[in-house]
Write a structure and sequence with these properties.
Helices cover 32% and strands 24% of the residues. The protein has helices spanning 42-45, 64-67, 70-75, 86-92, 102-121, 231-238, 240-249, 264-278, 297-315, 319-333, 341-351, 356-365, 412-420, 426-429; strands spanning 2-4, 10-12, 46-49, 52-56, 98-99, 134-135, 140-141, 145-150, 156-157, 162-170, 173-180, 186-192, 197-200, 203-206, 213-217, 257-258, 280-281, 286-287, 290-291, 339-340, 389-396, 399-407, 434-440, 444-449. Strands 8, 9, 10, 11, 12, 13, 14 and 15 form an eight-stranded antiparallel β-sheet that branches. The chain has a four-stranded antiparallel β-sheet with strand order 2-1-4-3. A hairpin with a 2-residue loop joins strand 10 (162-170) and strand 11 (173-180). The radius of gyration is 33 Å and the shape is extended. The protein is α+β, with helices and mostly antiparallel strands and 450 residues long.
């Protein structure tokens, strides 16, 4: 909506002509010159105003112009009169969480903040910053690749004898290069199959020659390297829930992590175990026994700790540790002849954010006609977060002789008495003088006797 006079001065078109619609063009390919494609619309370019001739500006706004304020339009998408209703904008803004990759966030975040600050200065929005919190998720790399290096005459060289190992551009794509420490000779890496290497200590070595350490690293996924993992294939083989779980379980959200298709099997097994515990094993014809009975005390305390941890971990985007807590809770359920309904339903609700499809199915099998999305999130009881009992190792002269289980709030005198009378401890104290009794709170008991 800008026009230029004969000497290049810029003028806005009258507001009555807004929005300015671009002309229909059959050819909008690049011109091969600095002029943009819109410059091909010769008749449309010329504008007559008040007896003066102007030329339209042919540089149009990039796609960033639309993607830099979409969060505002989401608040009030059907408003035909203005960008966003002020009351709605004040209620919803600023955005609580912005998640994006480093490369994306550097560009989009920069431009979005720029646009937002302009809108703030003009009085169209109520906050000077559009986003409260920024999280850059780490890149998921391809499968780990193994390379060994050899001299031109075919002698393998261990990476312990090399320096400056890295990638170098080549006609057929990137290749791995390194330099010998002794003479600076440049060597090229050769890909070797994982079956031909073995892990020893903190490195990987050729099975055929245990003296040759190989380079093991993961690269950014790219078609040229041939290491792209197609999500459709993973979903077809393992299901969307196992795929989601594995991605979140790989490590901290912000960390860079290598993909391993082999490891996704663990998440599939976990989901199968949850299904067997709460629904049954259809292959063997066994159904899970869900009963209206109280949860055993120790397991109930673990459940309340899990509710607290999973809830906090979700809020702090620690998905991997939340899933680990669910695996631990499910392991405690495995083998139970009867599963209390309260335990089964709580586990299902905790699992839902990570594996929504199987959780929804289990929820219905538990007798709920409505979606679990309508159910309240489980609440934990602070009084049930600690164990009622604790197990303590008992040592005599620094050697483990037995373990005792005592009340979590037992006094030191009670604990020492229980420890001294333990079946595995008594023979080592009889006829001896106890020179020292040591209790490390909630850790261990040790007797020094001679």
């Amino acid at each position: 909506p800008i026009v230029l006079d004969r000497i290049g001065n810029h003028y806005p078109i009258p507001e009555t002509e807004l929005p300015l619609r671009l002309p229909q063009m059959a050819d909008f390919k690049p011109t091969g010159t600095p002029e943009p494609p819109l410059s091909k619309a010769r008749d449309w370019l010329i504008v007559e105003q008040d007896g003066n001739t102007f030329t339209r500006e042919t540089n149009v706004m990039p796609q960033w112009a639309g993607s830099c304020w979409y969060y505002l339009r989401y608040i009030d998408p059907n408003n035909a009169d203005r960008l966003v209703d002020p009351d709605k904008e004040r209620y919803w803004m600023p955005v609580d969480l912005y998640v994006g990759g480093v490369e994306h966030a550097v560009l989009h975040l920069l431009y979005a903040r720029f646009w937002h600050k302009v809108l703030f200065d003009l009085g169209h929005v109520s906050t000077p910053e559009p986003f409260k919190r920024l999280v850059n998720q780490g890149l998921i790399l391809g499968e780990t690749e193994y390379h060994f290096f050899e001299t031109p005459d075919g002698n393998a060289v261990s990476t312990t004898e090399l320096r400056d190992i890295g990638e170098e551009a080549a006609d057929d794509g990137a290749r791995l290069v390194a330099y010998r420490r002794d003479n600076g000779q440049k060597l090229f890496g050769k890909r070797v199959d994982e079956l031909l290497v073995e892990k020893k200590g903190d490195g990987y070595y050729l099975k055929a020659n245990a003296n040759i350490r190989v380079d093991a690293r993961s690269f950014k996924m790219s078609k040229s390297r041939g290491n792209v993992v197609n999500p459709d294939t993973i979903v077809a083989d393992y299901g969307a829930d196992a795929f989601r779980l594995y991605e979140m379980y790989m490590g901290p959200l912000e960390a860079q992590k290598p993909w391993s298709t082999r490891d996704i099997v663990g998440m599939s097994r976990f989901l199968n175990a949850v299904w067997r515990n709460l629904v049954g094993d259809e292959e063997s014809g066994k159904s899970a026994q869900i009963v209206d009975a109280p949860v055993p005390d120790a397991l109930d305390r673990q459940l309340h700790r899990a509710i607290k941890k999973v809830g906090q971990d979700i809020q702090n985007l620690r998905f991997n540790t939340a899933i680990a807590e669910l695996i631990k809770l499910n392991n405690e359920i495995t083998g139970m002849a009867q599963v209390p309904r309260a335990l089964a339903e709580a586990l299902t609700l905790l699992l839902a954010p990570f594996a929504p499809h199987i959780a929804e199915e289990i929820w219905q099998r538990l007798g709920h006609p409505e979606s679990l999305a309508r159910a309240p999130w489980p609440e934990f009881d602070p009084a049930r977060l600690s164990d009622s009992t604790m197990e303590l190792p008992v040592q005599v002269n620094g050697k483990l002789r037995d373990k005792i289980i005592v009340a979590a709030d037992a006094t030191e005198e009670t604990i020492l008495g229980e420890a001294a009378s333990a079946a595995g401890v008594k023979p080592w104290l009889e006829g001896k003088q106890i020179r020292k009794r040591l209790y490390v709170p909630k850790k261990l008991v040790n007797f020094v006797a001679s």
